[in-house]
Specification:
Blueprint lengths: L1 H5 L10 E8 L2 E7 L6 E8 L5 E8 L2 E8 L10 E7 L12 E5 L1
Parallel strand pairs: 5-7
Antiparallel strand pairs: 1-2, 2-3, 3-4, 5-6
Protein name: Wound-induced protein 1
Organism: Cocos nucifera (Coconut palm)
């Protein structure tokens, strides 16, 4: 899938350079670039309580915002809302405009 998304040929190797790793409950986020910083990526892993990765999502050249859905309220009327907990830290925002995506956990 990565070759399809990045346009790399089967003969080309692709090196991931992680920039950060964050965990929110059962979700682990790893973001980084290629060595030339021309491709930006985020991997989102869902990890079970016994440490097994049960789901992997890959985002290439996409700005990602992670929000936590909170439906607790202090009044009798529930008002669900999203609390942002993480946002992509793009390596060079002035050079490239990327589509945005919100991941709710």
């Amino acid at each position: 899938m990565m070759r399809l998304l990045t346009g790399a040929s089967p003969e080309e190797s692709f090196q991931f350079v992680p920039r950060s790793i964050e965990a929110f409950g059962s979700t682990v986020l790893v973001e980084g670039t290629d060595p030339a910083r021309s491709i930006y990526w985020v991997h989102a892993w869902t990890v079970s309580p016994n440490g097994i990765i049960t789901q992997v999502r890959e985002y290439f050249n996409t700005s990602l915002t992670v929000t936590r859905v909170d439906d607790s309220t202090s009044s009798n009327v529930p008002k669900p809302h999203c609390l942002p907990v993480w946002q992509s830290k793009l390596p060079d925002r002035t050079r490239k405009s990327l589509p945005g995506l919100v991941l709710a956990i």
